[in-house]
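User: Could you check the structure of this?
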Amino acid sequence: MNLLSIGGSDPSSGAGIQSDVKTFAELGAYGLTVITAITGQNTSSFGMVEPVSKEILKNQIESVLTDFKIDGVKIGMVYNSEIIKTIYQQLRRLKIPIVVDPVIKSTTGGILIENKAIEDFKKYIIPLATVITPNKFEAEILTKTKADSKNKIEKIAKNIQKMGAANVIITGIEGKNQKIEDFILEEKTKYLVSGDKINNINHGSGCNYSAAIIFAISKKKSIREAVKFAKEFAYNSIKNAKKIGKGIKITDAGIKDMINLELSESINDFIKIENIYKNIPECQTNFVYSKQNPKSTKDMLGISGRIVKAGKEVIVAGNLTYGGSKHVATALLEVNKKFPTIHSAINLKYQDSTISKIKKAKLSTSYYDRTEEPKDVKNKGSSIEWGIKTAIKKLKDPPDIIFHKGDFGKEPMIIVFGETPKSVLKKLLKIIG
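Assistant: Sure, the predicted structure tokens are below.
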């Protein structure tokens, strides 16, 4: 995936195009850049701004667009009307997602857009936006309206949408109980996404957020999915912020790839399935997703606890972490060794009715008998490894399902395998209910 960042240069790499390139790289995308202005700033103060000429700006954009397939664009600092109009002329015919991050003022105090250019920003840049991500302060500037209640926030978002943005996300709204909320206005719906607040001043979280949004949207994720992903990404970037210079901390998201996003989405979909609690075994459930070419269970993302049933409810107890699963990850690792396209798995409660549905769905199934397990295998504690190897030994194609009927003191189990968590869920929905 190729993502283009159009914005200002920040020599501290805390924000601007340097920050975006770091974020894109962390997420596994290739970042390209077009510089609109050069700033002199660090973690303590803001110095000068020197915008580039429209000629070099146009040449930069043309150079990138004629040589690369661009999957998404993020627009940040635009500074003056000449830059704004040049960007509009170059991008107005593009049919790819564009995220606009209307940076007006830097954390260190610098003004990032001329006041007289704001009207042109509203006229030319906002209509390019698939998504626009102003914080509360920026939204107030754009609409000349004070945001003092949720109803007013909605009104402000609607005003920005009327300027031409398809979707509006207003970030940084103070919630209750140390929560920070984003208000999202799509074409036909509105909602809030809430997250934990971290009380520290940092440089770069807004750029991290909008860069994560364009990444997720370019991956064909919904606006809601993209917001949740970006909010978690930005939260991690603030939590991991480092004091590199003499002033405020610079955000550092760390690696947060699509494996986490895709598994998180599928777990959320899983727990929402009606009566899914009936399919949770006594040992509870884990859902795992591996990296490419996994070498051990440490390359498998899983829940550090389990998906557990509490009455008729299903709860995720624990966090997603690499090495978080032992049993399901071990089963997946063995299948992946023989069938490298298989990267995800989930375990379910064994029920005869489920096996009947598996047969009716014509899913490929394999079985192993735990009563035949050698004593030395039991003593070594490598039952799962032995069982999966036994089940797939003679298979030429990857199995959809592997199950066993248990043994003395050992619960019977069904494991569903697939290329991705979504393909696992698709198979699962054919056999439950």
